[in-house]
Amino acid sequence: MQKSDNRLFKLPKFQDLILFEDDNLIVINKPPFVASLDNRSGDEVNILRLAKKYYPDAQVCHRLDKDTSGLLLLAKNPETYRLVSIEFERRRVDKIYHAVIGGTHVFTDLSVDLPILNQGNKNVSIDRANGKPAETIFNSIQYFRHFTLVECKPITGRMHQIRIHLATQRAAIVGDEMYRGKPVYLSQIKKRGFTLAKGEEEQPIMKRFALHAHQIRFSIEGKEYNFEAPYPKDFATLLRLLEKFDS
């Protein structure tokens, strides 16, 4: 299983993550390497714990994988939590993720409709007989020589859904070793003038898989919400280097 290299990661202040706040909702741009909720041992920093220090009644309305960055909704009261949960259950929340995948892939409203079985312990598989329905729609946004930036719209919300659905198209997210995605190294794309100091080991441009929850749209009690989260530094750096050396 892939492990995040977060030894050099400095946890930001919760207030600095907030994109929007009113009497009912807090919307944050979750950084990578931070879990949404408590793990079983309860011994690591997570968004819920940080949020409760900021606002004691805060509840996380959904979750992102630990390595995934981007939009996360938190309710400030039980009623808002209930209303947002209903919207998710009824599949009325539009979520758009951006991912960088290996290879050049032309996706135009590609619907991947493959059932996913949660095997427990963060392992999932495609299982047509026993899996739960899962659908994701993919559109290519930007092409590089060896990679593609893709928009991913999950219709359902299964664990690892985007990651495993892309893997079925032989288009694994870069750095997603669980699904055979390979990390991107600068030496791969910058053929000239790349050097390492003696004894230095090259690190990947991103030390996680390249998936970001970019946009979310929904409405509660007739009020429309629409949020976008800018790319974190590592995702933006990867795209900048691909534009410079792999276009």
TrEMBL record:
Where is the chain membrane-spanning?
none
Among the Pfam families in the record, one is: PseudoU_synth_2
InterPro entries in the record, alphabetically? PsdUridine_synth_cat_dom_sf, PsdUridine_synth_RluA-like_CS, PsdUridine_synth_RsuA/RluA, RluA_PseudoU_synthase
The Pseudouridine synthase RsuA/RluA-like domain extends over: 24-167
Q: Supply the PANTHER family for this chain.
A: MITOCHONDRIAL RNA PSEUDOURIDINE SYNTHASE, RNA PSEUDOURIDYLATE SYNTHASE DOMAIN-CONTAINING PROTEIN 1
The similarity annotation says:
Belongs to the pseudouridine synthase RluA family.
Name listed for the protein in its UniProt record: RluA family pseudouridine synthase
Source species taxonomy: Bacteria, Pseudomonadati, Bacteroidota, Sphingobacteriia, Sphingobacteriales
